[in-house]
Amino acid sequence: xxxxxxxxxxxxxxxxxxxxDVEVRWSGEVLDWRRKESHLIAxxxxxxxxxxxxxxxxxxxxxxxxxxVTEEAKKEIEEKGIKLIIDRTEEAVKSFNIINKxxxxxxxxxxxxxxxxxxxxxxxEPGSLRERTLEKKTKVIGLFHLTC
Length: 148
Prior knowledge:
By secondary structure, the protein is an alpha/beta fold.
């Protein structure tokens, strides 16, 4: 999953173009991202993302960086131990893609002989195939303001 292109008012993700602000999840899911105030990102505007328990949140503040993240929102994110990256949307998209690509790099699905049975995965110990597979994908969410 990659964000292919961003320019003022539009973002293309996996071949589909969106003309509204978006929330992009590590899973490839793309959601409409609406805020109470267009150029102010408050705690209530990030609640849905926080509910996904991401490891990283990348916020794009628009082409010229007009959107501002409140101190309360920054504090809420950081208190949960989530890494926060805030930048103009063009740079934020690059950061999101780098994080997402790094988390996929080197991962190849297990072969049929490596796939454990259900019984083998119950109560998996640290370092097991199941745990290593789940660890490979960094839980990153991008919140992108597309205009000013």
